[in-house]
Amino acid sequence: MVEIIAQTKNWIREVVVGCNFCPFAAKELKQDTIHYEVVQTTGLNAARLAFLAECVRLDNDESIATTMLIFPDAFPVFLDYLELVDAVEKMLRQKGYRGIYQVASFHPLYQFADTALEDAANYTNRSVYPMLHILREAQIEKALLNFADPQSIPERNINFAREKGAAYMKMLRDSCL
After folding, report:
1. Comparing C-alpha atoms, which of 147, 128, 136, 132 is closest to residue 33?
2. Would you say 150 and 144 are in contact if contact means Cβ atoms under 8 Å apart?
3. Helical H segments across the chain, by residue range
């Protein structure tokens, strides 16, 4: 587990922060307010329960800004992973967490709709492991107050990845392992 967390931290530092895909990540990484939880399960239901447990952890620990829920042995097929994303989004609504927490999705084979598999843009969400990023809505809103034009972030990220190219982005991500 220690190695998986170290690789995830490398990915956040080298790709997410290094490419400035998330202009807010550097602060949380530097302040060590990211909780990393490695989930050994491979089943959808157990993964949903792990997600809920992390929401409860965030409820009870204000010192955690955000959680990376990492599934190193589960969801190798991207479409199966998308079922998990859909399930946890529904769980947010069912458990009354809508507006409190938000989920960002990352997967080694992430593919945006209407893009080719080899499109470099996919590397903006391609991680070293399948993972769910649980963010506090209040912190997102606070961070966005001090950021001009936050709507431009995804387009800027896609343009950056495409300028660098898929081979470079893959090398950068893979170097984190």
Report:
1. 136
2. yes
3. 2-11, 25-31, 44-60, 78-94, 137-145, 153-164, 166-174
